[in-house]
Amino acid sequence: MADSMRFDLVTPEKSLASLQASAVDIPGAEGDMTAMPDHASLLTTLRPGFLRVQSDGPASEYLVTGGFVEITASSVSVLAETVVPKDEATREQVAEFTAAAEEELSKSSGAEKDLAEKRLGEFRALAATF
Q: 0.85 exceeded by the pTM?
């Protein structure tokens, strides 16, 4: 088994991290998971939450609002909608994300409404951690 894997974190605007990691804790849409070297290939979506990257130094943590994750045996690539380093994240930012989710819910119907309700619930759960 390899000791590390490539980790890349990007948003549509920029690359935020590119390093070797020993594990990545992921807030997946279907539940939390940890990707480690030699992980089975997987493509999943992110839910709002904290992404934690373990490497040689102290772990790095990021608040993510959603996006996609591709896991292979040798890498984890995260394309996130919005990323805020955990130590810079504020209750006010999470309140803004929650308000945007409430607005999205008010404009949706049918199956879209179900997804919007789920997303709002995820932001409310995240807000409870601050």
A: yes
